[in-house]
Amino acid sequence: QKEVEQDPGPLSVPEGAIVSLNCTYSNSAFQYFMWYRQYSRKGPELLMYTYSSGNKEDGRFTAQVDKSSKYISLFIRDSQPSDSATYLCAMSLYNTDKLIFGTGTRLQVFP
Amino acid sequence: EPEVTQTPSHQVTQMGQEVILRCVPISNHLYFYWYRQILGQKVEFLVSFYNNEISEKSEIFDDQFSVERPDGSNFTLKIRSTKLEDSAMYFCASSPRSGSNQPQHFGDGTRLSIL
User: Fold this and answer.
1) CB contacts, 8 Å: B108 with chain A
2) Sorting pLDDT into bands at 50, 70 and 90, what band is B99?
3) Looking at beta carbons, which residues of chain B come within 8 Å of A43?
4) What percent of chain B stands above pLDDT 70?
5) Which single residue of A52, B5, B71, B104 has CA 20 to 30 Å from B20?
6) Of B6, B45, B108, the CB nearest to A99
């Protein structure tokens, strides 16, 4: 079983839609969870960072962590064409700086 | 907003040659990292560096790799004798402090092509 699994997509939605992006993981010791956005030919850009189970909201973005199910989600409300990018989940253990990434989900928002 | 800067954006090197990838982390950050992403694959951790020492490295980071902070601003990754399978995007990242609760900020990467 892979450590972090993420559907590669592509996911294609109309402008204004609510987008749901998800990752599952196998190691219950993961403590910190991040979502990065990566535009073509650019580096990963940090979007959201969470520690505990529950929800965290920042503007149009909501990150959700369910440690009991080993499942994390990123919701994007009122999606825009500028949201078109690859979304990477990443997570780490308590005592390390090493980030474990998912493969990324490619999102396309069309006008 | 401060950012991590990487040079060159694209490096083409003959197999067996040495290559140095350069990074300028965010100025008040103290922890530095290298990751790589082979085309179509996940971003993978290579090494973390603090106070002029490697603090953690992955199994990928073998004897052909080394890192250095030669001055107060640059952070470099050297690959001594490049192989075809070293072709990848290499990302530098930095964070202000250690700990998994300190998000890492990434540069735009150097695309390394080994011929």
Assistant:
1) 41-43
2) low
3) 4, 6, 91, 106-109
4) 97
5) B104
6) B45
